[in-house]
Amino acid sequence: MDLGLGMDELDLRRVRAALASALVAWALAVATSVAAPAPAAAAGNLVRNPMLSAGRGSQPNGWSRAAYVMKPEVTRFTWTRGPQGIGVLQIQNLRPNDARWVQKVPVSPSTWYRVSGWIRTLGVGAAHKGAYLSVMGTFHDSEDVRGTQGWRPVGFWVKTGSLDTSLEIGCRLGGYSSLNTGMAFFTGISVEAAGTPAPERFVYGGEPTAGGTGGALWAQVVGGLVVIGLVLLLWRYVVPRSGQIPP
Description:
By secondary structure, this protein is α+β, with helices and mostly antiparallel strands. Helix content is 21%, strand content 37%. The chain contains two helices and 13 strands. The two termini are 18 Å apart.
């Protein structure tokens, strides 16, 4: 058969066979990427600039400001460094507000993480949410600190969802429908992968699965179905009717 492009029947069959092989390889690559278990989270602290030692001017590296009311007459954000090079994030709510320093950190799906840091407060209102660490967009929070308190460690455990690849961590003063005033100071922020949460009050994300096998098994089933469906389509529409790949 001549297609008007100098291609005979044998050439056409060879093109079909090559296309079939390429599509099968692509299908297998897709299935492998879907079915493969999530890579282990990087070891150590995932927070960039956790001791707040690096930055320029009034801006620490890796951190940004956010607030319910983003006005200087409502909230002031400050970053300072001590003589030992350890920095401190500061939030001063002159009027009731939900304000925070935030950073997005990379994580692996279906993995437990320990979020921790140090907080000091000055004149934070006792009737509303105080100073705490939080996963933004959720109610996954550490203990909140109110009143006037010296430096104290806080933290919580959180398990990421099956599709999560990042968490936005907030060093926060005030909360959703719980605006507050006062001053809060933060340093030593850490997000680290952990195998099993300790028996604490602040644990979010449900009970850990045994090695996360449930999510991996479901991904393998989906990947297998993808491969089967694509192979059937290739057999029906692309592979030559004889089912033989010409030499």
